[in-house]
Amino acid sequence: MSTQLQRTETEGDESPQEQRLERKSLAEGEREAQRTEEESTGDETPHVHLKVFRYDPEVEAKREPRFDDFRVPAPQGTTVLDALMYARDEFDSTLTFRHSCRQAVCGSDALFINGSQRLGCQTQIQDLDQRPVRVEPLPHQEVEKDLVVDMEHFYDQMEAVEPYFQGETPDEEEQLQSRENREKVKMSTRCIWCGACQSSCNIAAGDNEYLGPAAINKAYRFAMDEREDDDIKKHRMNILEQEHGVWRCQTQFSCTEVCPKDIPLTEHIQEMKREAVKDNLKFW
Amino acid sequence: MSQSHNRGLIEDFGRWREFAPGMWAWIFHKFTGWVLIGYLFTHVAVLSTAISGPQLYTTTLRSLESLLLVRVLEVGLLAVATFHIMNGIRLLFIDLGVGLESQDKSFYASLVLTGAIAVASVPTFLSGAF
Ligand code: HEM
Ligand code: SF4
Ligand code: FES
């Protein structure tokens, strides 16, 4: 569940995105019923069994990756990140993972939890169906140590789309954006650079040069910003239209499904494809 | 940077069970597309027996149709073509940005329709095959 619920600032019917979020929270209600049955027996704190990926090239015994088991207390509201921190603080201080904000803002703790890319801090143990809870580093990235992966390539892809505003700033004036235009780019601005989407994408896994969902979404955020000039938009489209740009997307929707900020990534990629077509076909 | 661990292909293949509906749709679409191309060649080969006269064409077709395997494959071919068309239409809509929020449902609908049409075709394709 997102810590930030999407609310449209302008009136209107429910967007597809809102409907999707609604469905997500419905499924949650069902799991809740199942949980109270299985975990409230006895009055001691419920515990959870974690299976955590371990690897450390500098330690003989961990040079070959393995899974370690931890049994940690998981009272209601415990997140996977909480559980990992408990395991580190109480059992094994060498257990390594990135984290900072603990509130789905910094994007440090995207992990592969029970076979899906999620933020550790945003995933409550009780929302997971499968036991033991398997925690692995993000797939398709090299593992540095335990749950820490090399994010360099992801950051390179983000940089490649020039992820910064390039509009002219009028002297002593504010850069005002229209309400509608703000609404258009709103969801795309929420990216926290966690890399979950890139890790879930098969195309990105097979084609290292593919910009990937996060970078294309970032490009969307600026290309759709009306305060940037046409020249800059043209330049942005040139980046997106190259061989390893938008056209590599095969609409598998896995990025949209895993994004912890509920950004409609596939929708944005598809829109950039249509922009690219409009950019090149000039019948009008 | 120090040494890092590349988990390699095997481990990645193990994740295929986590595939989302959109990924299955993609795999099936690739598969069916290429099967259809394969069939196209067979199809042309069989039809071109007619160049050597109606006699050869008739005997070729008769003997093919007398094989149970061919009858079963015809049901499979219909299923493959139906799925490819259904999902192809789904993909065209997705390209237009229409119905993105029900992309999983439209995939399941393609599967169900394909199944239904394939089953409904069984009497036609297999009649007199036994
Ligand atoms: C009404 C009929 C058909 C429709 C609506 C249709 C639709 C499509 C669409 C939309 C794609 C592109 C998928 C994408 O976005 O990547 C595609 C790919 C393809 N189609 Fe079809 N198609 C039809 C018939 C056929 C036939 C008759 C054949 C073979 C003779 C065929 C062979 C293929 C192949 C080989 C691909 C590429 C698969 C790949 O990505 O490797 N299709 N089809
Ligand atoms: S688009 Fe979503 S999944 Fe991808 S990096 Fe940004 S927040 Fe993470
Ligand atoms: S710790 Fe910051 S996003 Fe999870």
From TrEMBL, chain A:
**Keyword terms:** 2Fe-2S, 4Fe-4S, Iron, Iron-sulfur, Metal-binding, Oxidoreductase
| UniProt superkingdom | Archaea
Which intervals of the chain are annotated as region Disordered? 1-48
Signal sequence coordinates: none
GO molecular function ontology, one term from the record: electron transfer activity
2Fe-2S ferredoxin-type domain location? 57-141
The metabolic or biological pathway listed in the UniProt record of this protein is: Carbohydrate metabolism; tricarboxylic acid cycle
Task: Name its co-factor(s).
Answer: [2Fe-2S] cluster; [3Fe-4S] cluster; [4Fe-4S] cluster
Bias (Basic and acidic residues) occurs at: 17-38
- What biological process terms from GO does the record include? respiratory electron transport chain; tricarboxylic acid cycle
Instruction: Give the family this protein belongs to, as stated in its UniProt record.
Output: Belongs to the succinate dehydrogenase/fumarate reductase iron-sulfur protein family.
What name appears for this protein in its UniProt entry?
A: Succinate dehydrogenase and fumarate reductase iron-sulfur protein
Source organism of the structure: Halococcus morrhuae DSM 1307
TrEMBL record, chain B:
Compartments it resides in: Membrane
Kindly state which keywords UniProt assigns to this record, in alphabetical order: Heme, Iron, Membrane, Metal-binding, Transmembrane, Transmembrane helix
Which GO terms are recorded in the biological process aspect for this UniProt protein? tricarboxylic acid cycle
Where are its TM segments located? 23-47, 68-86, 106-126
- Gene Ontology cellular component list: membrane
Would you say which domain of life the source belongs to? Archaea
- Pfam assignment, any one: Sdh_cyt
Q: Main subcellular localization, coarse class?
A: membrane
What is the protein's name according to its record?
Answer: Succinate dehydrogenase, cytochrome b556 subunit
